[in-house]
Write a structure and sequence with these properties.
- The chain has helices at residues 25-33, 38-44, 50-66; strands at 5-6, 17-18.
- It has 75 residues and is mainly α.
- The chain has a single domain (5-64), classed as Orthogonal Bundle (Arc Repressor Mutant, subunit A), CATH 1.10.10.
- The longest helix is centred in the last third of the chain and has 17 residues, at 50-66.
Length: 75
């Protein structure tokens, strides 16, 4: 299902990354959340492909199903 997401202990401290590159799934997701397009990402990271972005988002969504993070309550 995630053939473009890799985890290598010697890269990025073992964080999930895109195809063994030093681009983390979290970084790609943050860029999407900030409004970056795939074309903008490719300008910054020429090796990134549209399928990499799609799988990064799917991976993040899947991991959110099994991990609950505490939400800060409004003051």
């Amino acid at each position: 299902m995630f053939d473009r997401v890799t985890v290598e202990p010697e890269k990025l401290g073992g964080q999930p990354a895109i195809r063994g590159m030093r681009v983390s799934v979290a970084h790609v997701v943050r860029l999407v959340a900030a409004g970056w397009t795939v074309d903008q990402m490719r300008e910054e990271f020429p090796d990134i492909e549209p399928e990499d972005v799609r799988q990064a988002l799917l991976y993040a969504a899947s991991s959110a199903e099994v991990t609950t993070l505490p939400l800060q309550q409004p003051a």
